[in-house]
Design brief:
Length: 70
């Protein structure tokens, strides 16, 4: 149970750090506007899928979790 407790503490710190970054407005200019993000709009319809943003977040999160397991 000791490892699970450490994981929960680290996860909580990561969530707090992400919340602080979002609260301060960090990334407001580039999150969702990377090359490869899909944005389609018409007069009565708009579709936005941040494909590259999701891939970047997935890569960062995977690297972070990999480093924490070592």
């Amino acid at each position: 149970m000791n490892e699970f407790g450490k994981f929960l503490v680290v996860l909580g710190l990561v969530i707090v750090a992400a919340g602080l970054l979002i609260w301060t407005g960090f990334g407001r200019g580039w999150i969702g506007r990377l090359p490869g993000d899909i944005n389609y709009s018409r007069p009565n319809f708009s579709f936005h899928f941040p494909l590259m943003t999701c891939l970047v977040f997935s890569l960062v999160l995977s690297l972070l979790l990999w480093l924490l397991r070592k």
